[in-house]
Design a protein that fits this description.
By secondary structure, this protein is α/β, with parallel strands linked by helices. The protein has one domain: Alpha-Beta Barrel (TIM Barrel), CATH 3.20.20. Helix content is about 45%, strand content about 15%. The chain is built from 11 helices and 9 strands. Helix 2 packs across helix 11 and helix 4 packs parallel to helix 5. The longest helix has 16 residues. The radius of gyration is 16 Å and the shape is globular.
């Protein structure tokens, strides 16, 4: 049983790619969401790395409620509460922090912790998390490493969202594996493209990512 609600799990699985974003200006959030939706990507992770992030999440959920919005880089209990108050549908972290996971569970915010070792996976399972962020994917050894690391837990239906070093050239290899729920697509809307308002290229990259999923 996933810690994500069934409908959200199915939407993420169907979309197959989570656009990973860093937004410096809250006013860019809504046109960015529209650009992604035009490219048929309706799931995103908006990282809490800038002062604009919480306002950006709130704006997207207000103006584009059909978008599934994850708050990313959630490192503290306070950020859990900020993300929940802004209307985030779920949250993610690069690591596995029990206090943050427990706070998210208490707040009713579905949480995807990050893992890179078997011990990380076991701590996540202890917190009843079975959808996990594999980070940093490529620097840690890529799909070959993930298959070896995850093999002892396959019977527990653990699913992964890999992020870190993925791109249009290697994402397809991950998507071919049934343990992958979706890939994290940080290449779809890079920070510079968002700052420049280059919505057309973001839509094109989103479409390209969706074509990889459909293949």
């Amino acid at each position: 049983m996933s810690q994500l609600p069934a409908e959200m799990f199915e939407r993420i699985q169907r979309t197959g790619v989570v656009a990973v974003l860093v937004v410096d200006r809250a006013e860019d959030a809504v046109p960015l969401a529209h650009a992604l939706l035009d490219g048929r990507v309706d799931v995103l992770e908006l990282t809490l790395r800038t002062e604009a992030a919480i306002d950006a999440i709130r704006a997207i959920k207000t103006e584009s409620p059909q978008m599934i919005v994850g708050a990313g880089t959630v490192l503290t209990v306070n950020q859990v509460h900020q993300a929940a108050a802004a209307g985030a549908d779920f949250a993610l972290a690069p690591g596995m922090n029990r206090a943050v996971v427990r706070a998210a569970q208490s707040a009713g915010l579905p949480f995807v912790p990050g893992v890179v070792t078997p011990s990380d996976i076991e701590r996540a399972l202890e917190c009843e998390c079975r959808v996990l962020k594999f980070f940093p994917a490529e620097p840690a050894g890529g799909l070959t490493y993930l298959k070896s690391m995850a093999a002892p837990y396959a019977h527990l239906n653990v699913r992964f969202i890999p992020l870190g070093g993925l791109n249009a050239e290697n994402a397809g290899r991950y998507l071919d594996d049934p343990m992958i729920l979706a890939v994290g697509g940080s290449w779809i809307a890079q920070r510079e493209s968002i700052a420049a308002g280059d919505w057309r290229s973001i839509t094109a990259l989103a479409r390209q990512a969706r074509s990889l999923v459909e293949k």
